Every structure is written in C-alpha cells, then in structure tokens.
Amino acid sequence: MTILILGLVIFLGVHSVSIANPRWRASVVARHGEKMWQGVFALASLVGFVLIVWGYGLAREDPMGLYSPPIWLRHFALLLLLFVFPLLFAAYLPGRIQDMTKHPMLAAVKLWAFAHLLVNGNLADVLLFGSLLVWAVVDRISLKQRELISIPNPIRSKYNDLIAVASGVTLYVLFVGWLHRWLIGVSPIG
Asked: Distance between CA atoms of 93 and 105, rounded to whole angstroms?
C-alpha cells in the first residue's frame, strides 16, 4: 500500500502545484523556462503514475475490503463511464461540449473516479479513486479563483463535438469489451 500512496502523493502533488502555489510555478517557469517545467512535470508525473500502477497491482494481491457494493451498481457505473472518453476527447477539441462543461478533462476524471468507487470497495480502490475524485473536485473549484494557463487548442470546428463523441464511444466500447481486461486484468462486464 505504501507504493500506491507514494505514487499518489507524487502524481497528485505535481498536478496540484497550480492549485496550491501558482506563483511558485510561475516563478520557476520564469527562471528556467516552460520547456524545463514541462520536462520535470512529465518526469514526475510518469514516476508517480508507474508507482500508482505498481502499488495498486500489489495492493490487489492482498485486498482489504471496506464495503461490498451491490451488483446492480455495475450497470449504473457503466452508464456513467460512457461519458468519460467523449469528455476526454472534448478537452482537446473545442466545441459545445467544452463550452458546456468548461473543463471536460476534470469532468471525465470525476465521473471515472466516482463510477469506480461505486463498484470497488477495497482499501486500495478507495485510496486510488477517492484521491483522484477529491483532487478533481478541488482543482475544479480552484480554477474559479486562479489565472488560467493558456494551452494551445486545435481550431474550433463544427465537427469537433461529433469527433469527440464518436471517438469516445468507440474507445469506450473497446475498453469495456477488451482493453480493460487486457490492461487491468478485470472485465467490467462480467
């Protein structure tokens, strides 16, 4: 469990710099440049992510149950998860989905984490999905009070929403049907 917690601290820590201390981030970027910041950010994120995956895998070998969700929640979770991939695509494709949700990536993380908390009741699950849910909520709230960092987006197109939904639903079907079992070792549908 220690490796999972360390991974979460590193990954969410680096992703929380703009929440906790945006002036410090700005001063580091001013001193060392955006590319240096992005490199350190990417490296720390990758280390945190690898530790999360490794730690979560280890924790699943000796699970500590906290609650047993009813089986019918799987259907509700699958319905919530249908929106996750289209929202992820919409984060990079300016359109009405992005306008309505403001921050589709954070909306996707919140839906993904909440849906997984509904159907997974082990301690490692609550640590992983609960931490990411809390982080996404705090980040979304903090965005209302801080200056946004400009991120280049592709050109706005009337087809972006269609592309986001079609690509997202296709990836969802692949994930539910095959990729989740291949990557995680558990089939979400049985």
From this structure: 11
CB 5 within 8 A of CB 126: no
Closest residue by Cα to residue 125 from 116, 134, 133: 116
Structure tokens given for 151: 């991120």
| Same domain, yes or no: 53 and 76 | no
What phi and psi values does residue 97 have, to the nearest 5 degrees?
-60, -45
Q: Which two tokens stand for residue 76?
A: 């509700």
Which pairs with CB-CB distance under 8 Å and at least 24 residues apart come from 75-78?
A: 76/115, 76/118, 77/115, 77/116, 77/118, 77/119, 77/188, 78/115, 78/176, 78/188, 78/189
Only one residue has tokens 């917690």, namely 5
Say if residue 56 is in the same domain as residue 70.
no
CB 167 within 8 A of CB 85: yes
**What does the pLDDT look like over 95-118, one tens digit per residue?**
999 999 989 999 999 999 999 999
Alpha carbon distance, N-terminus to C-terminus of the chain: 26
* Structural domain boundaries enclosing 122: 65-190
pLDDT above 90 as % of the chain: 79
